[in-house]
Design the sequence.
């Protein structure tokens, strides 16, 4: 690296300058060989981060040769120490202690060449490598801590992005459930009524006209529901004036009679009963109950048109239960089976019961959907008055949609 090369050249230049202007008596004069050995001792620092252990060994070996040639020891002795410091800053402490041995050896050799007291030689040989390893290892730990911090930060960012993607997915699933409930219910009514109108178009004009009227009303209801849903999704801009369209809120339990009326117009014999004292429910719970009732009635319209249906809503202080039960007869209002020329049933998508269970789970309730003994089908959803998020038990079975 250019920075390490600059450090190596800097130490080589400083060593040569010091050897040139500081030549105490008693040691060999700093000649051409001294310059070469001084440069060779410093140059290994250019590889102190790529090959730190070899840097220490090469620098220490060159310094030992320099001392063996009789040159004064105060010029080059810090170069192996810098190498040891660099090694301790990028390698585990065990490797640093292993490299400290040759550094301690050349430090002893430098002290003896400088004719120092033995105690000072020993102290210097111990303290210099220990201090170099200590500060280098402190840097090593700091570098690793910073690297781990970067990893944790990256993991947190990735987790945040994953949660954002999950939130988008859940929102899309909720939108898909809403669209499924709206379109499936109203289009089932339209399909059944259109088929009925086709069947009796020439034989019973008033009935055909009533069926077409019901189909038209169901189509308009579907458009209103879709418009409301898309309005909820729309991001209002700052320049929207007071005339911006506002549509009714999500359907609530107060609209159950209207839903029952629409199902009756589609040919079902629906009996609606409510018991208990109504208690305030969270908006999500009311939407859940309404959508479950809507989906259950849609299933009957699809698979058992003309069946007898009992829809009950039972309020208690702790929970509210909605039950939609049909006899599966598929007969008309007079109890007779439909003729083969009548409107056909509508195939299901397989998503209705899944969506109902998911709604109940989100509201902290439970849902069961299973065939009845003796024929027919029953859907029951029980929600707590105060919504609690908990695991959703599996239903007892599925039949349709």
Sequence:
């Amino acid at each position: 690296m250019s920075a390490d090369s600059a450090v190596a050249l800097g130490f080589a230049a400083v060593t040569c300058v010091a050897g040139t202007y500081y030549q105490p008596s008693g040691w060999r004069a700093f000649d051409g060989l001294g310059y070469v050995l001084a440069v060779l001792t410093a140059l290994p620092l250019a590889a102190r981060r790529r090959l730190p252990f070899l840097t220490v060994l090469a620098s220490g070996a060159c310094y030992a040769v320099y001392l063996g040639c009789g040159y004064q020891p105060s010029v080059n002795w810090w170069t192996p120490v810098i190498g040891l410091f660099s090694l301790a800053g990028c390698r585990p402490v065990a490797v640093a202690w292993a490299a400290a041995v040759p550094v301690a050896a050349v430090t002893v050799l430098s002290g003896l060449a400088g004719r120092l007291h033995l105690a000072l030689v020993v102290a210097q040989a111990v303290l210099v490598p220990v201090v170099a390893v200590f500060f280098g290892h402190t840097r090593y730990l700091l570098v690793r801590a910073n690297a781990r911090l970067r990893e944790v930060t990256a993991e947190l960012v990735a987790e945040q992005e994953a949660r954002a993607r999950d939130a988008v997915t859940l929102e899309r699933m909720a939108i898909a459930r809403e669209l499924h409930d709206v379109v499936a219910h109203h289009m089932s009514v339209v399909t059944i009524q259109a088929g009925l109108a086709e069947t009796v178009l020439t034989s019973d004009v008033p009935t055909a006209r009533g069926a077409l009227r019901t189909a038209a009303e169901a189509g308009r209801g579907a458009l209103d529901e879709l418009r409301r849903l898309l309005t909820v999704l729309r991001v209002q801009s700052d320049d929207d004036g007071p005339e911006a369209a506002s549509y009714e809120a999500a359907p609530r339990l107060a609209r159950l009679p209207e839903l029952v009326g629409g199902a009756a117009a589609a040919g079902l014999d629906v009996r609606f009963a409510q018991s208990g004292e109504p208690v305030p429910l969270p908006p999500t719970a009311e939407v859940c109950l309404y959508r479950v009732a809507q989906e259950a009635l849609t299933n009957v319209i699809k698979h058992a048109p003309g069946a007898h249906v009992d829809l009950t809503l039972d309020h208690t202080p702790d929970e509210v239960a909605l039950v939609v039960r049909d006899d599966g007869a598929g007969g008309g209002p007079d109890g007779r089976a439909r003729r083969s020329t009548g409107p056909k049933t509508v195939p299901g998508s397989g998503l209705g019961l899944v969506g109902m269970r998911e709604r109940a789970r989100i509201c902290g309730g439970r849902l069961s959907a299973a065939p009845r003994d003796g024929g027919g089908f029953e859907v029951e959803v029980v929600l707590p008055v105060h919504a609690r998020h908990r695991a959703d038990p599996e239903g007892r079975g599925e039949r349709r949609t």
Residues 118-199 form the longest helix (82 residues).
